[in-house]
Amino acid sequence: MSLSRRRPLPLLIAGATAAALLLAGCSGGGDDGGGDPTPSASESTGAEVTEGSEGMPQASGQFGESPTFTFPDSAPPEGLQVDVLSEGDGPVVEPNAVVTANYYGIVWGSDTQFDDSYSRGAPSMFGLTQVVQGWTDGIPGHAVGSRLLISIPPDLGYGPQGGNPDAGIGAEDTIVFVIDVVETYNPGDAGQPDAAPTPEAADAPVVIDGALGEPVTFTIAEGAAEPTELTVIVLATGTGEPVASQQSVAVAYAFSYWDGSGTGSSWGWDGADPEGPFSAFAGQGTIVDATLDVPVGSRVLVLAPATEQAPASAAVIDVLGTA
Fold this sequence. Notes:
The protein is mainly beta. The protein folds into 2 domains: 8-184, Chitinase A, domain 3; 196-322, Chitinase A, domain 3. Helices cover 5% and strands 31% of the residues. The protein is built from 2 helices and 18 strands. It has helices at 8-17, 133-138, and strands spanning 49-51, 58-59, 69-70, 80-86, 98-107, 113-116, 124-127, 147-152, 175-185, 196-197, 206-209, 217-220, 231-237, 248-257, 263-265, 278-281, 299-304, 313-322. The strands form 4 sheets. Strands 1, 4, 5, 6, 7, 8 and 9 form a 7-stranded mixed beta sheet that branches. The longest helix has 10 residues, at 8-17. This is peptidylprolyl isomerase. Residues 30-83 are annotated as: Disordered.
């Protein structure tokens, strides 16, 4: 199992494009980690985070190593607890970011993990608005390269869903994680400033406000015809590795229905708060499918025809990274 949850706006984007992609809706696209997603959306609750509290378990190992836990005889401490086992020196994770992390999760007092990335041999990618509340509230403010020990009470973990019996997590269980923060993609992040513009960019039916490497808004060009088929236009080509099927992909985006009836943006649009980047597996029916075979760092325009569920739409997508 993983911690993944979905948030509404990227589902809106997927709804406008997935049918045209002839894919099976949005199913499966929200599992940004390596396992089995847990549903329902998460936004920061502003829960109080206590750091360096007494009564926390001991966790052995260095950054990048699978930990071993030793639990005290006492009951779990109350509330959300975060101990910094080692401090990184990379960028600080911001609210609503997408992070790549190694992690090991265990029920308080257990001797067996319910999920971990170390055994899979690679870190996993998660949107912090797509995970259990303890991650949403506990990880921001810490630097890439940090190793965190987080104790999550039931109300900020799996309690609201009645636990997770398949993982051996009860509705009243406190869960504990060691998390090694490997990378962050923050709400202000965009693609490569030096990505190479393509000839197709000059004929794109949108007028973009925002240089390469900067946040974007756009308008539909005057007189531009509604798309009648799905079209993916690479506006600028980055120098990273091309996105492969089944990779987790982090993207920044700006989105608008063709008739202007709805907009959204990871960067924020018209004064709205930034939604933060979106992440999903490529090839499973979400907007990130438009990045397949596109190098990391690129900027892409997706034009989607109207469906029974939504008007025609356009989205500008910056490919931030993969895992």
